[in-house]
Write a structure and sequence with these properties.
The structure is a single chain. By secondary structure, this protein is α/β, with parallel strands linked by helices. It folds into two domains: about 130 residues, Glutaredoxin (3-Layer(aba) Sandwich), CATH 3.40.30; about 80 residues, no CATH class. Helix content is about 60%, strand content about 10%. The chain contains ten helices and six strands, in the order H-E-H-E-H-E-H-E-H-H-H-H-H-E-E-H. A four-stranded mixed sheet has the order 1-3-2-4, with helices on both faces. The longest helix has about 45 residues. It is elongated and about 85 Å long. The relative contact order is 0.09. InterPro entries: OligosaccharylTrfase_OST3/OST6 (IPR021149), Thioredoxin-like_sf (IPR036249). This is Putative magnesium transporter protein 1. It comes from Rhipicephalus microplus.
Length: about 290
């Protein structure tokens, strides 16, 4: 009887040690797997700040647990056959944002940027129940993604600066956006100054047009039309030119807190039409009654 009890105790002890050893090996395997994933993601991001993901990579890097890093994913359709001009513009801003993080002094493996093209990962679109593009989704290191965390392109646009603020609110990672130098504005300004200088030189003997009230009035109206249409808001927020919906192309923003670029052109045209009609009827009235 005593021998049976000893054998039973030894059996239980061996079983407990085996379970503990298996759990330890499992934890070490998980840790190694997480470390390998982080190392692989770091190597990929060093080569290309925006990591292209298909269904398999999406499940491996984002859906697999545990995960000690956040992932910002853009769902898009860059193929020319998809005819998504907004997707190309959003991709440019997303690339600027990812490059700004990659080459900043605060760069770490806390956050990575990924891109899922519809033609390469349609199963990801189905998994996330998304049927439009572009879409920006945050996958935090802890917790699940919430519907309220989605980036509202219609309201906030897809400019790199706006995306950086959105990421800071969701992940506490602050990214300072560095845009590549764009000399088109400088070149246009130089050409404009050169043309004005050439015009003044050619008319140097007759500069009466500088005192022409009509010219100055037209110039002032152009500035007013541009400012009241929301051009400065477009410059700051970087909204899309137009928006594609399930019902077709939208030229007017559905929210009172946002606008589209084409919408500003419509406002300019309407304001100009009002001013033109006002002056037209004013001159007609003046011609017939005075």
């Amino acid at each position: 009887m005593l021998k049976s009890c000893v054998n039973l105790c030894l059996f239980v002890l061996v079983a407990l040690l085996s379970i503990e050893s298996s759990c330890g090996n499992y934890r070490r395997k998980d840790a190694q797997t997480l470390g390998e994933r982080v190392q692989q993601l770091t190597e990929l991001s060093l080569k290309r700040p925006v990591i292209r993901l298909n269904g398999e990579k999406f499940r491996h890097f984002i859906k697999t647990s545990p995960r000690n890093y956040s992932f910002i994913v853009m769902l898009t359709a860059l193929s020319p056959q998809r005819q998504c001009s907004i997707c190309r513009q959003a991709n440019e801003e997303f690339q600027i944002l990812a490059n700004s993080w990659r080459y900043s002094s605060a760069y770490s493996n806390r956050i990575f940027f990924g891109l899922v093209d519809f033609d390469e990962g349609s199963d990801v679109f189905n998994m996330l129940q998304q049927n439009s593009a572009p879409v920006f989704l945050p996958f935090p290191e802890k917790g699940k993604m919430k519907r309220a965390d989605h980036h509202d392109i219609q309201r906030l646009g897809f400019g790199a600066e706006g995306l950086a603020r959105w990421i800071a609110e969701r992940t506490d990672v602050h990214i300072r956006v560095f845009r590549p130098p764009n000399y088109s504005g400088t070149i246009a300004l130089v050409i404009l100054v050169a043309l004005i200088g050439a015009l003044l030189y050619m008319r140097r003997n007759n500069l009466d047009f500088l005192y022409n009230k009509t010219c100055w009035g037209i110039a002032a109206l152009c500035i007013v039309f541009a400012m009241t249409s929301g051009q400065m808001w477009n410059h700051i927020r970087g909204p899309p030119f137009m928006h594609k919906t399930q019902r077709g192309v939208a030229y007017i923003h559905s929210s009172s807190g946002g606008q589209l670029i084409v919408e500003t052109y419509i406002v300019i045209f309407l304001n100009a039409a009002v001013v033109f009609c006002f002056f037209f009827f004013f001159f007609i009235f003046f011609f017939f009654f005075f």
